[in-house]
Structure formats: C-alpha cells, structure tokens
Specification:
Layout (H helix, E strand, L loop, with lengths): L14 E6 L7 H14 L4 E6 L5 H13 L5 H19 L5 H25 L4 H25 L5 E2 L7 E2 L10 H14 L4 E5 L2 E4 L4 E3 L4 H12 L4 E6 L23 H9 L10 H7 L3 E5 L4
Parallel strand pairs: 1-2, 1-8, 2-5, 3-5, 4-6, 8-9
Antiparallel strand pairs: 6-7
Helix pairs in contact: 1-3, 2-3, 2-4, 2-5, 3-4, 4-5, 6-7, 7-9
C-alpha cells in the first residue's frame, strides 16, 4: 500500500526508513526473515532500520512494573521469563563465536530492569517516568540483538540510540516531540554519518532534562516517520504481519481486501477508527513532505 504525493528534497543523501514491528522480530526465525529483507533493501540506498521490542515484551515489562508496584513478588518470575526469552533468542540467532558479548549485554540490560523493578517494589509506586524507563529496554535490547545478527551475516550496521536524536516534552508515556530541536539533530546526524545502514530502537526518546520518554504504544511507527520526515527520506516502509492496509481486520472478516493506494487523510482517519496496522500520529510528519508510506508483510515480502 502506498500513500502518494511525493515532493523532492535534495539536501540529504537519498535514504529510506524501514520499520519492523514486534511480530516481525518476535523470535530468531522472524528476525532472520527481516534481516533478509534488509540485506536486499540496502543494495538500493542508505537505510535506517527502526525496530520494535520482541513481540509481547512491552506487555511483559509493564506487568513486571505493575506487579512490583503492588508489592507482588511474582514480578521476579516475569523478569526471569524476560531474561530467558532474550537469551534464548540470541542463542538461536547468533553463531556461538558471536554470542558471548551479546549475551553479557542482554544480562546487563536485564539487571538494570531488575534494579528498577526492585526500587518500584520497595516504594510501592510506579510513576509514568519510571514506567517509560522500564518499557524502553524492550526496544533497546531488540535493536541491539538485530544489529548483532546483521553484523554476524557480514552486514555492518551502525546502532544509534534514538534518544540522542528525538527530543520530547516531559509528558511521560505519551510524550510530544519537540520538532524544532529534533529535526535539525536528525538532519545533521544523517548528513554527516558515513554508514549505509543504521539500526535504531523505536518508541523511545528523551526530554530536555535527559530523562527517557516514550511516544505512546505503537510509537515505533512514529519513530520511523519522525526520522523519515526530518531526513527527507525517499520512502518509509512499515513492515508488519499483514499485506497492506485492508478494508477490514482480516482476523475478523474473511473477504477483507488490500487497499491498493490511499490518501494520507484517509489512512489517518482509518487508523483513528481502529485500523491497527499503523499508529495514528505516524502519517502527519510524512504528509507534510509528501513522503510515500508503504505497508509491507515481513512474512510475504
């Protein structure tokens, strides 16, 4: 599916943005499928890869924080499941010779999550600020895992923390982007960076005081749009588990059909009315610059 009306901007190198959602990186097999797509795409032009947390991990992190705030020690069992999930994925994904550094990196991140949850447990309080910090780890770990796998296949990506480029207000859990600060930061970075492939965590940003914020559930789409618009990308691709925007939810309606092309306004309206294939704020920055958006299926590329 494509949203049309492309204008040409030339001050940045030609670049595309690819976003892979939670189902596309849910396990080692899916990550390999996503990486195969990326390997083909980087032959065309400079590419930014925006990655969601492994499918279900954001909910698991939220559950850990919520249980800890309630004084329920079961949060420790959920934390253990979280650690095991990521370690198992790394072991299934990476050659043995490439595993040790990544496994220690995962353990370090998971120890930080545990420290935060222990603090929440002692205080019996989970503020939105702390919640954002806890939830941010899903995207950080998954994007570093994807970058490590790409490296093991001979592709040389640069991992870049989105928090260094996207600045928001301090409205934790649904922060608003400060585009006056963010756009020049993104433009400058991608104008000067030498790499041809970048891997970034979606969903997360930082406020002007340096505290981690999130862009709302589904915010990885928005991260891709923010990067794409600020860098004047040739296109933004949302890789998911359905083959485009459809006339209805295919899980509920048997004869749902793909919409071949649709205006930004119509796509935004459908997303506000419950079309889960795209996060509602995503299209706004891209519409302003007429950058095409494609909805693609990782499992039927």
């Amino acid at each position: 599916m494509q949203a049309f009306n492309r204008h040409t901007f030339t001050f940045l190198p030609f670049m595309q943005v690819l976003k892979f959602g939670g189902t596309s990186v849910a396990n080692a097999d899916n990550i390999k499928k996503a990486a195969a797509i990326v390997a083909e795409e980087i032959k065309k032009e400079k590419t930014v890869l925006v990655v969601s947390a492994l499918g279900g991990v954001t909910d698991l992190l939220l559950q850990c924080g919520t249980l800890a705030a309630q004084g329920n020690q079961e949060y420790k069992q959920y934390l253990q499941a979280l650690v095991q999930r990521h370690l198992d994925t790394a072991k299934a994904l990476l050659p043995v010779t490439n595993q040790s550094g990544v496994l220690s990196q995962i353990m370090q991140r998971c120890n930080e999550i545990e420290d935060l949850c222990n603090g929440v447990f002692l205080l019996n309080e989970l503020s939105n600020k702390t919640k954002d910090r806890i939830l941010s780890y899903g995207e950080i770990i998954s994007s570093q895992l994807v970058a490590a796998y790409l490296t093991s296949t001979g592709v040389a990506p640069t991992w870049k923390d989105s928090r260094e480029l996207i600045t928001t207000d301090s409205n934790f859990t649904k922060a608003a982007v400060d585009f006056e600060i963010t756009n020049p930061q993104i433009a400058h970075y991608f104008t000067t960076a030498k790499a041809t492939l970048f891997v970034m965590p979606g969903f997360i940003a930082v406020d002007k005081y340096g505290y981690t914020t999130t862009l709302g559930r589904g915010g990885s789409d928005y991260t891709a749009a923010i990067i794409g618009a600020a860098a004047n990308a040739s296109a933004v691709y949302i890789w998911t588990d359905v083959s485009g925007m459809m006339t209805a939810d295919p899980r509920l309606v048997n004869n749902a059909k793909v919409i071949p092309h649709i205006s930004y306004q119509e796509a935004m309206e459908l997303s506000h009315f419950g079309a889960k294939v795209i996060y509602p704020p995503t299209l706004q920055p891209l519409m302003t610059k007429g950058i095409p958006v494609w909805i693609k299926n990782t499992f039927a590329p």
